[in-house]
């Protein structure tokens, strides 16, 4: 399968998880193309001053890989500053949040994969 950049769907998520601004998600793979392994593989773009609010993962885990910008990440209550090339992962049962604290759009790859406990429920 090959999909060109102009064929990828884009989702706009205002105030995602109670965050600020509108997060744009370029869907590299939609849920139905992940064949039961997860629900998101995309590039998330948060504008300057925007954020995704704190939320807990249940039945899945999420990995971020920073491509552009500067992020403040709350990883289960501990804050970190991430820049291009850095990654963070929120495990099943843990919580996280991310905020763009830079002077340009924050862009990162986001992958949400189901945990083993979720697979047992399928």
UniProtKB/TrEMBL annotation:
> From which domain of life does this come?
Bacteria
The record's listing under InterPro entries reads: Cupin_2 (IPR013096), GPI/OXD (IPR051610), RmlC-like_jellyroll (IPR014710), RmlC_Cupin_sf (IPR011051)
Determine if Metal-binding is one of this entry's keywords: yes
Gene3D superfamilies in alphabetical order: Jelly Rolls
User: Which residue intervals define the domain Cupin type-2 in the entry?
Assistant: 44-111
List the keywords (alphabetical).
Metal-binding
Example of a GO MF term: metal ion binding
Identification of the protein by name: Cupin domain-containing protein
